[in-house]
Amino acid sequence: MELTTHLINDTMNLYKWALTIADKRVEKWPLMDNPLPTLAISSSYLLFLWLGPKYMQNREPLQLQKTLIVYNFSMVIFNFFICKELFLAARAAGYSYICQSVDYSDDPNEVRIAAALWWYFISKGVEYLDTVFFILRKKFNQVSFLHVYHHCTMFTLWWIGIKWVAGGQSFFGAHMNAAIHVLMYLYYGLASFGPKIQKCLWWKKYLTVIQMVQFHVTIGHTALSLYMDCEFPHWMHYALICYALTFIALFGNFYYQTYRHTPRQPREPKAAKALSNGVSNGLSKGLGNGAVVGGGGKVEEKERSSGVDNGNGRRKRKGRTKRD
């Protein structure tokens, strides 16, 4: 018990110290004063994952076609706005795509970058609706571990990013991810129109490929920053590399299972072998006189009443043969 108390006290002291080096520009922004609102939203999300399927179990799935069209295209616009803001503000501030430290000043371009990153953080919370819509439509198979892990961790961890490093190297990953989400939600929006449009959307699997490329680029970019000893918290760099590796493993497995793995086809029963004398039947054995036998073993062709052909054109008489 005493050990637990010390651990809690040390954690609180570490958190209080960390607050002294947090970004003062964002502390009064919505959700940024402390982590409790963000944790409450994420906890509610996890609770809905448990209660939602139970609620929908005996109910008809909701269609939500119009809602999905509006939602997906709204997310296209939202992510495009974030991508555009980060690009223009970083360009105006003279940002380097290789190594960029955080500027905590009130420079308009730096504040604009911080604001764009905050909107990016908010977008990750809005994306919880992806899961809500899956459950309301009873698409439970879509709510995989990858799906939940991706949504829950992105929103929660980006609170840390905005609280301490709302600028600098942080802009690179958010900029790239927002651009990819423009394409993703464009696909989902078009798919919401139904089968007539869906059959034209041949590029779904390439979205997964682009996401995996993104994670590899993230690792390479972060490793380069460490190599150059970029003025950015190194522990965040190492944490980001580990985080990206988990996504490479999960998305790689998803891609393999969805697009590469071919389930083994069940073996077909062997066809009954034809008998050497040409008899065709539904059993394993047939008669030796060329008769056709049905599945029940009945002779389909009746023998002639006068006798059976002995193979030389003559017929055997019934009864005993007379002596000459």
From TrEMBL:
Q: Name one GO biological process term.
A: fatty acid elongation, saturated fatty acid
Q: Where is the composition biased (Gly residues)?
A: 285-297
One GO MF annotation is:
fatty acid elongase activity
Q: Which reaction does it catalyse?
A: a very-long-chain acyl-CoA + malonyl-CoA + H(+) = a very-long-chain 3-oxoacyl-CoA + CO2 + CoA
**InterPro entries from the UniProt entry:** ELO_CS, ELO_fam, ELOVL4
| Alphabetic keyword roster | Endoplasmic reticulum, Fatty acid biosynthesis, Fatty acid metabolism, Lipid biosynthesis, Lipid metabolism, Membrane, Transferase, Transmembrane, Transmembrane helix
What start and end residues bound the annotated signal peptide? none
Assembly and partners?
Oligomer.
- Which PANTHER family does this chain map to? ELONGATION OF VERY LONG CHAIN FATTY ACIDS PROTEIN 4, FATTY ACID ACYL TRANSFERASE-RELATED
Which family does the record assign?
Belongs to the ELO family. ELOVL4 subfamily.
Write out the function statement from the record: Catalyzes the first and rate-limiting reaction of the four reactions that constitute the long-chain fatty acids elongation cycle. This endoplasmic reticulum-bound enzymatic process allows the addition of 2 carbons to the chain of long- and very long-chain fatty acids (VLCFAs) per cycle. Condensing enzyme that specifically elongates C24:0 and C26:0 acyl-CoAs. May participate to the production of saturated and monounsaturated VLCFAs of different chain lengths that are involved in multiple biological processes as precursors of membrane lipids and lipid mediators.
- Protein name according to UniProt: Elongation of very long chain fatty acids protein 4
